[in-house]
Input
Amino acid sequence: MTYFDHNATAPLHPAARQAWLAAAEKFIANPSSPHRLGSRADAALEEARSRLATMLGCQPHEIVWTSGATEANNQVLHHFASVLPSEATVCISAIEHPSVIESAAHYFGPRVRLIPVGRDGVVDLPWLAAELEQRRPGLVAVMAANNVTGVLQPWEQIAQMCRRREVPYFCDAVQWLGRESAAGLGACDYVSGCAHKVGGPRGAGFLKCPAKREFKPLLFGGPQEEGRRAGTENVAGMLALVATLEARQGLLGEQESRRELRDRFIERLLVELPGVEIVGASQRRLWNTVAAMFPAVDCRQRWVVKLDKLGVAVSTGSACSSGKEEPSPVLLAMGRTPGEAGRVLRMSSGWETEAKDWETLLSAIKLAASELRQAVPA
Ligand code: PLP
Output
């Protein structure tokens, strides 16, 4: 099977596997236990925390280990729901992951203000600037890179705008980390990330948050993580998370060659299948992501099934919403109609994806297109 669904989850990286196995065998004790074996596990966890903090550019005690980004994202909204005054609004970009959008809706209901995005998939900065000035929201949340389109968001600028207004800024960096440089992310007040999009294990993530400020935990029942997240830490998972992110940071010099492979595929796709449109094409995007809107031959589900039968795994949007027939809210927020959104396929490569894999994808798409055209005349 040729795998083009790294934005959903990625195959395990050897460095992550090695770090996980070594830690699982070596650190047998609970890091909170008072004996030497416990202290050893704790020391390993703290060392991993320092290494992650170095990558992000923040202090180690600003990092809380979590079970993944969904938990970290829920934690942020839960915290602000507990500390903000009852009339406070929160500004969330309209293209956030459901773990942000849905927890914001849960905690803040009508007090959620959705930051619009343009047709190109980038958040509307003038809108946000006006909102910061006129309403002064209690929180701003804008992700670093979108999971459906790969479009990069101006998070550094947003962090500055928020800092000037003293409004906390939360950046979901899940799709950015391990593909773009992590440097500077520590300047955002809150940052979430996870391991499994770039070769780490599933169920391992973190939240960067201000250490000295009040923190309302989501989970109770233990003093771990300085009282910010109860529960025995996943030592092996966190060591593997850091190992994979470091390995990926070391590859950043090769981004251009990976982008070239992707762009060559796009060029050929546009020639082979006239009528295909690349979503967010005018903007800077992750080097691994192609969100392509196919001509009105059939619905996206059939494309995915056809490609699957031809040995290629792609997605229709975020993995969390595939399986459902609803159009991706990200594409709707970009002004696409439900019909158009229904024709978008997301193809996301990994660092290990080679030219021949892109070839296989293109051939499979061409074959699927001709079969679909025969089945449903245009
Ligand atoms: N945020 C973004 C942008 C994502 O793409 C995802 C996963 O699809 C998540 C959060 C959730 O991450 P996790 O699978 O670690 O809970």
